[in-house]
Write a structure and sequence with these properties.
- By secondary structure, the protein is of the alpha+beta class.
- The strands form 2 sheets. It has a 5-stranded mixed sheet, with helices on one face. It has a two-stranded antiparallel ribbon with strand order 5-6.
């Protein structure tokens, strides 16, 4: 592999694995809170008020626990921005890519350049939840 192609390959791999998040408002947003104060719930606590449906994803990687943690942290950050102090976690899933990546190829004058094809299977973790506001949240454990 041509050493001049390494920086381009690195940029392509980094941009291919960007994390993202989305929201659908289903209630009234409140003043933003600290993401560290947002608690994760498996069921809605009594008196909770729904604010938004959230979905987030981690950067592409190799299916690590860190990716799951990153996707949940993004949920908490999005929830906090909407004034939520809780998230009902609906689920976490993995999506895999085939990982086909081609770099280079083409011709210049009488010279033909070959391409570099790399197939690196990657995984991205996606988390879904509902941002909620809980009037009297129990202390975090």
């Amino acid at each position: 592999m041509n050493l001049r192609m390494l920086p381009l390959l690195g940029v392509l791999l980094v941009t291919a694995g960007c994390a993202s998040s989305s929201k659908v408002m289903i209630g009234q947003a409140r003043a933003p809170t600290d993401p560290a104060l947002v608690q994760i719930y498996s069921t809605p606590p009594p008196g909770s008020i729904e604010i938004a449906q959230l979905e987030s994803s981690s950067a592409a990687g190799f299916g690590t626990q860190g990716q799951t943690d990153a996707a949940i942290a993004r949920l908490k950050k999005e929830a906090a921005a909407l004034g939520a102090n809780g998230v009902i976690l609906m689920g976490v899933e993995s999506s895999s890519s085939g990982g086909g990546l081609s770099v280079g190829g083409g011709s210049y004058g009488s010279h033909s350049g070959g391409g570099v094809g790399i197939g690196i299977p990657t995984t991205q973790r996606r988390a879904a939840g509902v941002a909620i506001w809980v009037p009297n949240p129990a202390p975090a454990r």
